[in-house]
Write a structure and sequence with these properties.
The structure is a single chain. Helix content is 46%, strand content 16%. With 263 residues, the chain is an alpha/beta fold. The protein is globular and about 50 Å long. NADPH dihydro-nicotinamide-adenine-dinucleotide phosphate binds next to helix 1, strand 5 and helix 6.
Length: 263
Amino acid sequence: MDLQLEGRTVLVTGASSGVGLATTELLLAEGANVIACARDQGRLDAAVGALPGAERAYAVTADVTDRTQVEAAVQQGLAHFGSLDAAVCNAGRSLMSTLTDASDDDIRTELELKVFGSWNVIRAARPALAASPVGAVVNVNAILARQPETRLAVTSAARAALLNLTRSMAAELAAEGIRINSVCLGLIDTGQWRRRYEAYAAGGGTQSYSEWSAEIAADRGISLGRFGRAEEVAYPIVSLLSPRASYLTGASIDVGGGVTRQP
Ligand code: NDP
């Protein structure tokens, strides 16, 4: 099926790794132009530069929590491609911490990343998205937004704030023809989990990565019994951006392998 994204321009934050990189790859394969954003220019250039269709990707560096940097990145992308039709607000990480262990700064930083990491991008891109006949945004979120975990208490709360805010953004920006949806992730095999496994192994853990991840998947009640792959998230994201999804806004899709511990 033609997703009607050929020649459209999409901004992807967190494009140098994991879900953002897989989304960039799929968008390029669909014939879209991609403004690829992350903080580390070298890593971004290496990752995106290796993708098929990389000549239609344009790398910009920005910390999504910094409004000025995000505005500059959007303007650079617009100057390069001439228009902007969609954005994927994906940049982020999670903070393994209970509320008791988190400092006030940890809590502020996490809220800043999840809330402003999306709002800074949407606010900066808004005029261009409104000018597009197919303006669309996907906020990459987590199932934690509706199903908090104690060991990820601060991240869960920040995710809930983003999910709620996404509904409000979708309602407010609908009048400008901009659709905004959420994709809520379960456990996806990306850099985040590889780094956690390295810490486990460095701490004396003896399981292989696949044993370790299968045990976590079982513990979290994932019906499919495994972590997801980044490309399995890229497709739902890109399909929501597609003009074919023109009646979808304010929606949230869980991509969690049928995780069963829903509230
Ligand atoms: P990765 O760690 O693989 O990639 C994160 C990307 O975000 C990198 O490109 C990184 O590049 C970029 N990034 C991080 N912080 C910033 C920042 N402040 N400004 C700009 N870019 C930034 O992550 P995943 O692919 O696993 O995660 C993608 C999204 O999905 C995140 O929001 C994550 O929280 C969410 N998620 C992931 C889950 C999972 O299991 N993997 C589960 C639930 C949600 P650089 O460091 O150079 O900036």
